Amino acid sequence: MRSVGSAGAVRRGRLAKTLVIGAALVTVGLGYGVLMPGGASGADGPQSDQIEAGRRLFAVGCSSCHGLHAQGGTNGAGRIAGPSLIGVGAAAVDFQVSTGRMPATQTNAQVPAKTPVYTAEETAALAAYIASLAPGPAIPASESYDVSKVTQPEIARGGELFRTNCTACHNFAGRGGALPNGRYAPSLMSTTPRNMYQAMLTGPQEMPVFSDHVLLPDDKRAIIAYIVALQNQDDPGGFGLGRLGPVSEGLWGWLVGIGLLVVVAVWIGAKVPRIHRRSNKSE
Protein backbone atom coordinates (compact mmCIF):
# COMPACT_ATOMS: atom_id res chain seq x y z
CA MET A 1 0.00 0.00 0.00
CA ARG A 2 1.09 3.60 -0.72
CA SER A 3 1.81 5.75 2.24
CA VAL A 4 -0.08 8.96 2.94
CA GLY A 5 3.06 10.95 2.20
CA SER A 6 3.56 9.44 -1.23
CA ALA A 7 -0.07 10.07 -2.18
CA GLY A 8 0.25 13.70 -1.17
CA ALA A 9 3.40 14.05 -3.25
CA VAL A 10 1.57 12.70 -6.30
CA ARG A 11 -1.27 15.17 -5.80
CA ARG A 12 1.15 18.06 -5.40
CA GLY A 13 2.96 16.96 -8.57
CA ARG A 14 -0.26 16.94 -10.59
CA LEU A 15 -1.27 20.32 -9.19
CA ALA A 16 2.12 21.73 -10.12
CA LYS A 17 1.80 20.46 -13.70
CA THR A 18 -1.66 22.01 -13.98
CA LEU A 19 -0.40 25.34 -12.70
CA VAL A 20 2.56 25.30 -15.10
CA ILE A 21 0.32 24.55 -18.10
CA GLY A 22 -2.15 27.24 -17.07
CA ALA A 23 0.61 29.79 -16.61
CA ALA A 24 2.04 28.92 -20.04
CA LEU A 25 -1.35 29.38 -21.73
CA VAL A 26 -1.87 32.73 -20.04
CA THR A 27 1.63 33.85 -21.04
CA VAL A 28 1.04 32.87 -24.69
CA GLY A 29 -2.31 34.64 -24.73
CA LEU A 30 -0.90 37.83 -23.28
CA GLY A 31 2.05 37.72 -25.66
CA TYR A 32 -0.24 37.34 -28.68
CA GLY A 33 -2.41 40.19 -27.47
CA VAL A 34 0.62 42.45 -27.19
CA LEU A 35 2.31 41.41 -30.45
CA MET A 36 -0.84 41.05 -32.60
CA PRO A 37 -0.70 43.39 -35.65
CA GLY A 38 -3.00 46.38 -35.55
CA GLY A 39 -4.81 45.25 -38.72
CA ALA A 40 -5.64 41.84 -37.22
CA SER A 41 -8.62 43.08 -35.25
CA GLY A 42 -11.00 40.83 -33.44
CA ALA A 43 -14.15 39.27 -34.80
CA ASP A 44 -16.14 42.39 -33.93
CA GLY A 45 -13.58 44.90 -35.25
CA PRO A 46 -14.28 47.50 -37.95
CA GLN A 47 -12.29 45.63 -40.57
CA SER A 48 -14.21 42.44 -39.91
CA ASP A 49 -17.50 44.34 -40.16
CA GLN A 50 -16.44 45.80 -43.52
CA ILE A 51 -15.45 42.36 -44.82
CA GLU A 52 -18.79 40.91 -43.72
CA ALA A 53 -20.65 43.77 -45.41
CA GLY A 54 -18.67 43.11 -48.58
CA ARG A 55 -19.46 39.39 -48.39
CA ARG A 56 -23.18 40.12 -48.24
CA LEU A 57 -22.97 42.55 -51.17
CA PHE A 58 -20.97 40.01 -53.16
CA ALA A 59 -23.49 37.25 -52.50
CA VAL A 60 -26.33 39.41 -53.83
CA GLY A 61 -24.70 41.24 -56.74
CA CYS A 62 -21.69 39.21 -57.89
CA SER A 63 -22.01 35.54 -56.97
CA SER A 64 -24.30 34.69 -59.89
CA CYS A 65 -21.31 35.06 -62.23
CA HIS A 66 -18.24 34.73 -60.00
CA GLY A 67 -19.50 31.95 -57.73
CA LEU A 68 -20.69 32.15 -54.14
CA HIS A 69 -17.11 32.06 -52.83
CA ALA A 70 -15.54 34.05 -55.72
CA GLN A 71 -14.13 30.83 -57.17
CA GLY A 72 -15.54 31.59 -60.63
CA GLY A 73 -18.68 30.35 -62.29
CA THR A 74 -20.09 28.99 -65.53
CA ASN A 75 -23.35 29.49 -67.35
CA GLY A 76 -25.74 26.80 -68.48
CA ALA A 77 -23.67 26.08 -71.61
CA GLY A 78 -20.55 25.38 -69.57
CA ARG A 79 -18.85 28.63 -70.58
CA ILE A 80 -17.14 30.82 -68.01
CA ALA A 81 -19.63 33.39 -66.74
CA GLY A 82 -17.17 35.11 -64.43
CA PRO A 83 -13.50 34.38 -63.64
CA SER A 84 -12.20 33.52 -60.20
CA LEU A 85 -11.49 36.58 -58.08
CA ILE A 86 -9.31 34.81 -55.55
CA GLY A 87 -5.99 36.62 -55.51
CA VAL A 88 -6.96 39.56 -57.78
CA GLY A 89 -6.63 41.95 -54.85
CA ALA A 90 -8.52 45.00 -53.68
CA ALA A 91 -7.11 47.25 -56.42
CA ALA A 92 -8.76 45.21 -59.19
CA VAL A 93 -12.12 45.30 -57.43
CA ASP A 94 -11.90 49.03 -56.78
CA PHE A 95 -11.03 49.72 -60.44
CA GLN A 96 -13.76 47.54 -61.94
CA VAL A 97 -16.54 48.60 -59.56
CA SER A 98 -15.71 52.32 -59.27
CA THR A 99 -15.69 52.68 -63.07
CA GLY A 100 -19.03 50.88 -63.39
CA ARG A 101 -17.58 48.04 -65.44
CA MET A 102 -18.76 45.65 -62.75
CA PRO A 103 -21.35 44.37 -62.29
CA ALA A 104 -21.59 43.80 -66.04
CA THR A 105 -25.02 44.16 -67.61
CA GLN A 106 -24.29 41.81 -70.51
CA THR A 107 -21.49 39.72 -71.95
CA ASN A 108 -19.72 41.43 -74.84
CA ALA A 109 -16.23 41.36 -76.32
CA GLN A 110 -15.33 44.01 -73.75
CA VAL A 111 -17.12 45.47 -70.74
CA PRO A 112 -17.47 49.26 -71.10
CA ALA A 113 -17.29 51.84 -68.34
CA LYS A 114 -20.59 53.22 -67.10
CA THR A 115 -22.16 54.92 -64.10
CA PRO A 116 -21.14 53.04 -60.94
CA VAL A 117 -23.80 50.93 -59.26
CA TYR A 118 -22.24 50.86 -55.79
CA THR A 119 -21.33 53.75 -53.52
CA ALA A 120 -17.76 54.40 -52.42
CA GLU A 121 -18.41 52.69 -49.07
CA GLU A 122 -19.91 49.63 -50.75
CA THR A 123 -17.02 49.47 -53.22
CA ALA A 124 -14.54 49.56 -50.33
CA ALA A 125 -16.44 46.74 -48.60
CA LEU A 126 -16.38 44.57 -51.72
CA ALA A 127 -12.67 45.23 -52.16
CA ALA A 128 -12.00 44.34 -48.51
CA TYR A 129 -13.91 41.07 -48.86
CA ILE A 130 -12.02 39.97 -52.00
CA ALA A 131 -8.71 41.01 -50.42
CA SER A 132 -9.50 38.82 -47.41
CA LEU A 133 -9.71 35.69 -49.59
CA ALA A 134 -6.10 35.75 -50.81
CA PRO A 135 -3.21 38.24 -51.18
CA GLY A 136 -3.28 40.54 -54.21
CA PRO A 137 -2.48 44.12 -55.28
CA ALA A 138 -3.80 46.53 -52.66
CA ILE A 139 -5.49 49.85 -53.36
CA PRO A 140 -2.61 52.32 -53.76
CA ALA A 141 -2.13 55.14 -51.30
CA SER A 142 -2.97 58.63 -52.55
CA GLU A 143 0.72 59.57 -52.48
CA SER A 144 1.37 57.01 -55.23
CA TYR A 145 -0.70 58.86 -57.83
CA ASP A 146 -0.60 62.44 -56.52
CA VAL A 147 0.82 64.53 -59.37
CA SER A 148 0.22 67.96 -57.88
CA LYS A 149 3.96 68.50 -57.27
CA VAL A 150 5.35 66.77 -60.35
CA THR A 151 7.90 68.83 -62.27
CA GLN A 152 8.04 69.46 -66.01
CA PRO A 153 11.06 67.15 -66.50
CA GLU A 154 9.08 64.35 -64.80
CA ILE A 155 6.12 65.01 -67.11
CA ALA A 156 8.46 64.83 -70.10
CA ARG A 157 9.85 61.53 -68.83
CA GLY A 158 6.29 60.28 -68.35
CA GLY A 159 5.58 61.15 -71.97
CA GLU A 160 8.54 59.07 -73.09
CA LEU A 161 7.39 56.13 -70.98
CA PHE A 162 3.84 56.49 -72.27
CA ARG A 163 4.92 56.55 -75.91
CA THR A 164 7.10 53.49 -75.31
CA ASN A 165 4.60 51.34 -73.39
CA CYS A 166 1.09 52.63 -74.03
CA THR A 167 0.62 54.32 -77.42
CA ALA A 168 0.29 51.05 -79.34
CA CYS A 169 -3.18 50.71 -77.82
CA HIS A 170 -4.19 54.04 -76.29
CA ASN A 171 -2.96 56.33 -79.12
CA PHE A 172 -0.15 58.82 -78.63
CA ALA A 173 -2.68 61.35 -77.30
CA GLY A 174 -4.40 58.90 -74.92
CA ARG A 175 -7.63 58.92 -76.92
CA GLY A 176 -7.87 55.13 -77.21
CA GLY A 177 -7.89 52.84 -80.21
CA ALA A 178 -9.32 49.68 -81.75
CA LEU A 179 -8.04 46.19 -80.96
CA PRO A 180 -8.78 42.81 -82.61
CA ASN A 181 -12.04 40.89 -82.15
CA GLY A 182 -14.19 43.86 -81.22
CA ARG A 183 -12.03 44.96 -78.29
CA TYR A 184 -10.60 48.42 -77.79
CA ALA A 185 -8.33 50.47 -75.59
CA PRO A 186 -10.50 53.13 -73.91
CA SER A 187 -9.79 56.84 -73.96
CA LEU A 188 -7.93 58.11 -70.92
CA MET A 189 -9.30 61.64 -71.09
CA SER A 190 -11.73 61.12 -68.19
CA THR A 191 -9.82 58.49 -66.20
CA THR A 192 -8.79 59.47 -62.69
CA PRO A 193 -5.15 59.16 -61.52
CA ARG A 194 -6.23 56.55 -58.97
CA ASN A 195 -7.77 54.33 -61.62
CA MET A 196 -4.79 54.83 -63.94
CA TYR A 197 -2.47 53.51 -61.24
CA GLN A 198 -4.79 50.60 -60.46
CA ALA A 199 -5.09 49.69 -64.14
CA MET A 200 -1.31 49.50 -64.43
CA LEU A 201 -1.17 47.34 -61.30
CA THR A 202 -3.91 44.89 -62.26
CA GLY A 203 -4.09 44.85 -66.08
CA PRO A 204 -7.87 44.94 -66.64
CA GLN A 205 -9.32 43.17 -69.68
CA GLU A 206 -6.83 43.44 -72.60
CA MET A 207 -4.28 45.57 -70.77
CA PRO A 208 -1.04 43.90 -69.62
CA VAL A 209 0.05 44.11 -66.00
CA PHE A 210 2.74 46.72 -65.26
CA SER A 211 3.84 45.62 -61.81
CA ASP A 212 6.32 47.55 -59.71
CA HIS A 213 9.02 45.29 -61.11
CA VAL A 214 8.14 46.36 -64.67
CA LEU A 215 7.40 50.03 -64.05
CA LEU A 216 8.63 51.56 -60.82
CA PRO A 217 6.11 53.56 -58.75
CA ASP A 218 7.88 56.78 -59.78
CA ASP A 219 7.53 55.76 -63.44
CA LYS A 220 3.82 55.15 -62.98
CA ARG A 221 3.38 58.54 -61.36
CA ALA A 222 5.28 60.20 -64.22
CA ILE A 223 3.00 58.52 -66.79
CA ILE A 224 -0.07 59.64 -64.85
CA ALA A 225 1.28 63.19 -64.74
CA TYR A 226 1.74 63.16 -68.52
CA ILE A 227 -1.83 61.92 -69.09
CA VAL A 228 -3.21 64.55 -66.70
CA ALA A 229 -1.29 67.16 -68.72
CA LEU A 230 -2.97 65.84 -71.88
CA GLN A 231 -6.36 66.03 -70.18
CA ASN A 232 -5.79 69.70 -69.35
CA GLN A 233 -4.15 70.64 -72.64
CA ASP A 234 -5.67 73.52 -74.59
CA ASP A 235 -5.96 73.88 -78.38
CA PRO A 236 -4.57 77.36 -79.09
CA GLY A 237 -4.50 76.68 -82.82
CA GLY A 238 -8.22 75.97 -83.08
CA PHE A 239 -9.98 72.61 -83.14
CA GLY A 240 -8.16 69.64 -81.64
CA LEU A 241 -9.91 67.22 -84.05
CA GLY A 242 -9.67 64.53 -81.40
CA ARG A 243 -5.88 64.63 -81.58
CA LEU A 244 -6.02 61.52 -83.73
CA GLY A 245 -3.24 62.62 -86.04
CA PRO A 246 -3.39 62.27 -89.83
CA VAL A 247 -6.71 60.40 -89.80
CA SER A 248 -8.87 63.24 -88.54
CA GLU A 249 -6.65 65.90 -90.11
CA GLY A 250 -6.76 64.20 -93.52
CA LEU A 251 -10.54 63.77 -93.27
CA TRP A 252 -10.91 67.43 -92.39
CA GLY A 253 -8.70 68.36 -95.33
CA TRP A 254 -10.78 66.31 -97.77
CA LEU A 255 -14.18 67.40 -96.52
CA VAL A 256 -13.41 71.07 -95.98
CA GLY A 257 -10.38 71.82 -98.18
CA ILE A 258 -11.37 69.82 -101.25
CA GLY A 259 -15.01 70.75 -100.64
CA LEU A 260 -14.20 74.45 -100.79
CA LEU A 261 -12.20 73.95 -103.99
CA VAL A 262 -15.19 72.16 -105.56
CA VAL A 263 -17.52 74.99 -104.55
CA VAL A 264 -15.13 77.59 -106.00
CA ALA A 265 -14.79 75.58 -109.25
CA VAL A 266 -18.57 75.32 -109.61
CA TRP A 267 -18.96 79.02 -108.93
CA ILE A 268 -16.33 79.89 -111.58
CA GLY A 269 -18.01 77.54 -114.05
CA ALA A 270 -21.36 79.22 -113.46
CA LYS A 271 -19.83 82.65 -114.09
CA VAL A 272 -18.22 81.82 -117.48
CA PRO A 273 -21.43 81.60 -119.58
CA ARG A 274 -22.61 84.96 -118.24
CA ILE A 275 -19.35 86.61 -119.34
CA HIS A 276 -19.77 85.13 -122.85
CA ARG A 277 -23.36 86.34 -123.09
CA ARG A 278 -22.43 89.84 -122.09
CA SER A 279 -19.63 89.95 -124.67
CA ASN A 280 -21.99 88.72 -127.43
CA LYS A 281 -24.55 91.43 -126.61
CA SER A 282 -21.92 94.14 -126.78
CA GLU A 283 -20.96 93.01 -130.30
UniProtKB/TrEMBL annotation:
PROSITE patterns attached to this UniProt entry: CYTC (PS51007)
Keyword Transmembrane (UniProt): yes
Posttranslational mods: Binds 2 heme c groups covalently per subunit.
UniProt domain Cytochrome c: residue ranges: 49-134, 153-231
The reaction(s) this protein catalyses: a quinol + 2 Fe(III)-[cytochrome c](out) = a quinone + 2 Fe(II)-[cytochrome c](out) + 2 H(+)(out)
One Pfam family this sequence matches: Cytochrome_CBB3
Enzyme class: translocase
Chief location: membrane
List of residues binding heme c 1: 62, 65-66
SUBUNIT field: The cytochrome bc1 complex is composed of a cytochrome b (QcrB), the Rieske iron-sulfur protein (QcrA) and a diheme cytochrome c (QcrC) subunit.
Protein name: Cytochrome bc1 complex cytochrome c subunit
UniProt organism field: Kribbella kalugense
Biological classification of the source: Bacteria, Bacillati, Actinomycetota, Actinomycetes, Propionibacteriales
